[in-house]
Every structure is written in C-alpha cells, then in structure tokens.
C-alpha cells in the first residue's frame, strides 16, 4: 500500500483506500514521475490512472455503457477477466480464427497472463471502480483487436488508440512521453508518421469498447468482430508486419507501458 494520510472514511468496497484531494494530488504527481522513470512499475501506472482520471469522464463512460444492452449487463453482472474466471484451455480448443482461440494464442506467444492487472484502490464510487477494473482487464484484448504485441512500440500504439477512444489522461501522458523510451529512430518515425495516426483513426471510429461483453464473444470470428467495431487495416501481430513497419517483437520484454 502507498502511504497516505490516515482518514476515517469508511471504504466503499473491498480494497478501497479513501484519500483526500491533496493526497490524491500527491499520489498523481508521484506516480507520474515514477512511471516515467521506471516503466516496469505497473503499480504506479495503475495509481496514476485512478488518481488522474476525472470523475466526470468515468461517469460519461458509465452512461455510455448504460446506453447499450451489453453495457447494462456488464454493469449488472460484473464479469472479471482472469485465469480464475476464464478457462484458457477451453478457449484454446475453439475453432481457428475465433476471438477466444486467438486470445489464448496471443497470451501464450507473448508470455502474458490476465492475472497481472492491479486491483482498483483510489476510485471512490464502487461502480466507477469496477469500470476502471474492466478497462484494465480488457487491455490485452485491445492489443489483440489492433494486432499489436507487447514491445514498447506496440504499447505506444495502444496508448494512442486509448487516448483517442477513451480520452484518459494517463493514456495521453504515455502517448506524449512514452516515445522517449524508443531505442531506434525508425520506431519514432514510424510512430509519428504511420502507426500513431493509424491508431488515432481507429480510436475515433471504433464502436464503444466498454460495451463489449468479451465473455460472450469468445466464439465470434475475430475478423467479424473487428468489422463490427469499425476497425480497419489491422496488422497480423504474428508476422511483424503492418503499421509497426519493421522488426519482430521481443515477447519477453515485459515493457507494458500501458497496462494500466
């Protein structure tokens, strides 16, 4: 737990750590600095997400979910994405090309597990906290939808997409300062001239992601889901081609800038 000034406020849900406005400001500033210095500190990025996101923006996300049948069901049923709730072996047995089969393959090839997402602590409203948790646990599926891997460039592409789609401040911060972590000039050139603009276009045109009930889409053909979500020109993350331009991903890099 990050030390904060002791408060007598009763937690709104299990794992909730109530803080005041001044504490929230210090947490946001501190977590932002640490996240920029050490990209491995996913806990700091998670803290930054929670302390920097305006309540009004989360309320707008909730209203968007309430405007669709699937969104209302998600809020009512509160599904979670983890190895405790998702049978990855069963997904692996689904037909080739389905969301579930491709998701299990992506996790395996990239050396990623859905169990690494930090729980929400600093969002005061219990339902809004769940929305942040759902967004966080869906992060890997955004990678799959956009044909991205887990190297730094791929993470930045996702952040540009997320900022365009969700308008989250943490995504904007990662988009602005994340390119400093790129080692090669061709990566920066590609991000600013091709893959970044592509990600922004996809974020603007994509149907609301928070309204996707992933658990009911495992048997859906991934190409059909992308078409339904208005996503176009998506690269194949397995061949190293597409908007990234060059090179293969290092699947063991561990550099998940955007896994908030």
Pattern of helices and strands: HHHHHHHHHHHH
Number of helices: 12
Alpha-carbon Rg, integer: 18 Å
Domain module tally: 1
The 3D shape can be described as globular
Strand fraction equals under 5%
Structural class: mainly alpha
Helix content class: 40-55%
Region (Disordered): 234-260
InterPro entries: Coq4 (IPR007715), Coq4_euk (IPR027540)
Subcellular location: Mitochondrion inner membrane
Membrane topology: Peripheral membrane protein
Structural descriptors:
260 residues, mainly alpha, 12 helices, 53% helix
Question: Explain this structure to me?
Answer:
- With 260 residues, the protein is mostly helical.
- It has one domain (21-228).
- Helices cover 53% and strands 0% of the residues.
- It contains 12 helices and no strands.
- Pathway: Cofactor biosynthesis; ubiquinone biosynthesis.
- Residues 234-260 are annotated as: Disordered.
- Its main location: mitochondrion.
Q: Strands, helices and their partners?
A:
Blueprint: H1 21-37, H2 42-52, H3 55-66, H4 69-77, H5 88-92, H6 99-110, H7 126-137, H8 139-145, H9 152-166, H10 169-177, H11 185-205, H12 222-228
Brief overview:
This protein is mainly alpha-helical. 53% of the residues lie in helices and 0% in strands.
């Amino acid at each position: 737990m990050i030390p904060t000034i002791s408060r007598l406020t009763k937690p709104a849900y299990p794992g909730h750590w109530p803080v005041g406005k001044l504490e929230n400001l210090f947490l946001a500033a501190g977590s932002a600095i640490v996240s920029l210095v050490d990209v491995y500190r996913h806990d700091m990025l998670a803290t930054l997400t929670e302390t920097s996101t305006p309540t009004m923006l989360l309320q707008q996300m909730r209203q968007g979910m309430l405007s669709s049948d699937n969104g209302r069901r998600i809020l009512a049923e509160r599904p979670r994405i983890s190895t405790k709730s998702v049978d990855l072996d069963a997904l692996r047995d689904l037909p080739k090309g389905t969301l579930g089969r491709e998701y299990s393959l992506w996790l395996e090839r990239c050396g990623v597990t859905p169990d690494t997402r930090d729980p929400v602590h600093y969002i005061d409203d219990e339902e809004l906290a769940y929305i942040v948790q759902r967004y966080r646990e869906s992060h890997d599926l955004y990678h799959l939808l956009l044909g991205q891997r887990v190297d730094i460039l791929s993470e930045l592409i996702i952040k540009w997409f997320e900022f365009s789609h969700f308008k989250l401040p943490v995504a904007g911060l990662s988009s602005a300062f994340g390119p400093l972590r790129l080692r090669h000039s061709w990566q920066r050139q590609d991000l600013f001239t091709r893959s970044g603009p592509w990600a922004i276009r996809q974020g603007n045109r994509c149907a609301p992601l928070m309204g996707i009930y992933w658990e009911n889409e495992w048997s859906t053909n991934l190409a059909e889901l992308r078409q339904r979500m208005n996503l176009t020109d998506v690269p194949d993350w397995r061949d190293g081609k597409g908007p990234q331009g060059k090179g293969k991903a290092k699947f063991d890099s561990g550099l998940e800038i955007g896994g908030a």
